[in-house]
Write a structure and sequence with these properties.
Elements lengths: L23 H26 L2 H18 L2 H6 L3 H6 L2 H8 L5 E9 L3 E11 L4 E8 L3 E6 L1
Antiparallel strand pairs: 1-2, 2-3, 3-4
């Protein structure tokens, strides 16, 4: 081993020589900021995309208008996957198309499945009504008629 005077014979100086300070304010402010941001994002989602009832009303109106206009491609794409597997285009027209114009009368959460399924009551000109179930499957989709 080497002997002799070295350039740095002293011990390293202590890194933290001051009195410790508490920095909990920044931590609490950060947590509150993240919580407020998350709440803002949820609120923004409702403003931009609308509530589930608004989305269900819109998709039902577009679906029924496309059926009435003979736009089977659009109306077929607005069906959920289960309905598309069950019905072909002529079957869809037989099951969903009714004479006259229709309007959305009421939208409520499904009594069994809650807000994940919206029950949309549709009323036709002649007074007949039907309930369409609308689910969120990569966007709102019409899933069954009752």
């Amino acid at each position: 081993m080497t002997q002799g005077p070295f350039l740095y014979d002293d011990d390293p100086a202590p890194l933290h020589t001051g009195t410790p300070r508490r920095r909990q304010g920044w931590l609490i402010a950060g947590i509150l900021g993240v919580a407020l941001l998350a709440g803002g994002m949820v609120a923004g989602l409702y403003v931009v995309r609308g509530s589930p009832a608004d989305q269900s009303t819109e998709v039902t109106q577009v679906f029924l208008a496309a059926l009435a206009a003979g736009d089977t491609e659009t109306s077929y794409q607005l069906l959920c996957e289960e309905e598309r597997q069950r019905l072909d285009v002529p079957g869809m027209q037989d099951e969903y198309l009714r004479p006259g114009s229709a309007e959305v009368a009421e939208v409520v959460d499904d009594p069994v499945e809650g807000a994940t399924v919206q029950q949309v009551t549709v009323r036709w000109e002649d007074g007949a009504t039907a309930e369409l179930a609308v689910i969120n499957e990569n966007g709102p989709r019409v899933c069954r008629i009752g």
